């Protein structure tokens, strides 16, 4: 049982409340010591704080009626393979979202800004997705991981695919540990295919590829330092008119006990 209750925030918008009764179930079946078949559904309700919405997407609205995304069904089936050196999983699922918050680029400038500030809206949505995840340790100190997500999010009332949702997302990492773990390096990459920015599906944003690099060194049994670069060489946009940070250098210190 879940739901929310929201008062009018502008004085003109109506109050909104929604309650839902949804099943929660999970079944695991062990085919062998290292292979597990899973099935189930896990309903959820998202965050409704402005802080969370701003972290998810840049937007500019006066007193937004910020309501959560409610997922009544998140049904999936999958298989998990786990061993000493290989971890892999494949999952396919379907989400029923009777109330989904989404961002989109308005046709006219929003609050006088013509670029970079999407608006927020709500609709019923249906999501079909497939997820593959693989992690391999070819030898001690080296780990390689790959993951892929294929999804389609359909908005019911608008009868379009949800804006700012890439149909294919690819990711991966390479992590290397040397000197008994005192020296660590890691490279992460993410690739997002082109996505529409509006509900007309006529304004596609180009695909993006982001690469992050990190190196950590413990010069003392307890003390170390970390440095790296985020979005190496990237000047691309995920949000229309809102470029990603490029070559963001960072430096920090670490403590372990």
Write the layout of secondary structure elements.
Blueprint: E1 2-6, E2 16-20, E3 25-30, E4 35-41, E5 44-45, H1 50-56, E6 70-71, E7 73-82, E8 86-104, E9 119-139, E10 142-155, E11 160-161, E12 168-178, E13 183-192, E14 195-196, E15 204-205, E16 208-218, E17 223-230, E18 237-239, E19 242-243, E20 248-255
Give the CA-based shape: globular
Average per-residue pLDDT, rounded, comes to: 86
How far is it from the N-terminal to the C-terminal residue, by CA? Answer: 43 Å
Count of alpha and pi helical runs: 1
Rg of Cα set = 22 Å
- Give the class from helix and strand content and strand pairing: mainly beta
Low-pLDDT runs: none
Helix content: under 10%
* Beta-strand share of residues: over 45%
For the sheet with most strands, the description reads: 12 strands, antiparallel
Number of strands: 20
Describe the overall structure.
The mean pLDDT is 86. The radius of gyration is 22 Å and the shape is globular. The chain contains one helix and 20 strands. The strands form five sheets. Strands 3, 4, 7, 8, 9, 10, 11, 12, 13, 16, 17 and 20 form a twelve-stranded antiparallel beta sheet that branches. The protein has one helix spanning 50-56; strands at residues 2-6, 16-20, 25-30, 35-41, 44-45, 70-71, 73-82, 86-104, 119-139, 142-155, 160-161, 168-178, 183-192, 195-196, 204-205, 208-218, 223-230, 237-239, 242-243, 248-255. The protein has 257 residues and is an all-beta fold.
Main features:
12-stranded antiparallel β-sheet; 1 helix; globular
Write a compact overview of the structure shown.
The protein is mostly beta strands. The chain has one helix spanning 50-56, and strands spanning 2-6, 16-20, 25-30, 35-41, 44-45, 70-71, 73-82, 86-104, 119-139, 142-155, 160-161, 168-178, 183-192, 195-196, 204-205, 208-218, 223-230, 237-239, 242-243, 248-255. The strands form five sheets. Strands 3, 4, 7, 8, 9, 10, 11, 12, 13, 16, 17 and 20 form a twelve-stranded antiparallel β-sheet that branches. A two-stranded antiparallel ribbon has the order 1-2. Strands 5-6 form a two-stranded antiparallel sheet.
């Amino acid at each position: 049982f879940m739901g929310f209750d929201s008062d009018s925030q502008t004085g003109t918008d109506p109050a909104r409340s929604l309650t839902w009764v949804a099943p929660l179930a999970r079944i695991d079946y062990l085919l062998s010591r290292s292979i597990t078949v899973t099935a189930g559904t896990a309903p959820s309700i998202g965050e409704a704080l402005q802080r969370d919405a701003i972290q998810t997407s840049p937007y500019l609205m006066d007193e937004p009626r910020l309501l959560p995304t409610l997922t009544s069904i998140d049904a999936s089936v999958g298989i998990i393979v786990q061993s000493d050196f290989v971890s892999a999983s494949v999952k396919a699922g379907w989400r029923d979202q009777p109330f989904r918050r989404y961002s989109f680029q308005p046709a006219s400038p929003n609050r006088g800004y013509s670029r970079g500030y999407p608006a927020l809206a709500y609709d019923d949505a249906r999501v079909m997705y497939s997820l593959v995840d693989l992690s391999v340790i070819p030898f001690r100190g080296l780990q390689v991981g790959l993951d892929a997500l294929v999804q389609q999010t359909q908005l019911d009332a608008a009868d379009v695919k949800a804006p700012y949702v890439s149909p294919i997302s690819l990711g991966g990492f390479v992590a290397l540990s040397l000197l008994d773990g005192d020296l660590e390096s890691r490279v992460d990459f993410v690739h997002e295919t082109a996505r529409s920015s509006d509900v007309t599906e006529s304004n596609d944003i180009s695909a993006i590829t982001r690469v992050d690099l990190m190196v950590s060194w413990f010069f003392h049994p307890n003390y170390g330092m970390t440095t790296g670069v985020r979005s190496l060489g990237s000047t691309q946009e995920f949000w229309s008119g809102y470029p990603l940070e490029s070559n963001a250098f960072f430096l920090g210190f670490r403590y372990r006990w």
